[in-house]
Amino acid sequence: MPEGHSVHRIAHQFQADFVGHPIAVSSPQGRFAAGAELINGQEMTAARAVGKHLFLEFENDLVLRVHLGIYGAWDFAGNLTLVGNTYASSIGAPRVTRAIHVGEEEREKAGAVAPEDTAFPPDPVGAVRARLLTSSAVADLRGPTACEVINFSEVAQVLQRLGPDAANEPGIESEDRIVELIARRKVPIARLLMDQAIMAGIGNIYRAEMLFRARIDPFVLGSQLREETVRGLWRDWVSLLEIGIKTGRMMTREDLSPAEFERALDDESIRYWVYGRHGQPCRVCGVDIAMEVMSGRKLYWCPNCQQGRK
Question: Shortest CA distance to 212 belongs to which of 243, 186, 176, 240?
Answer without folding.
Answer: 240
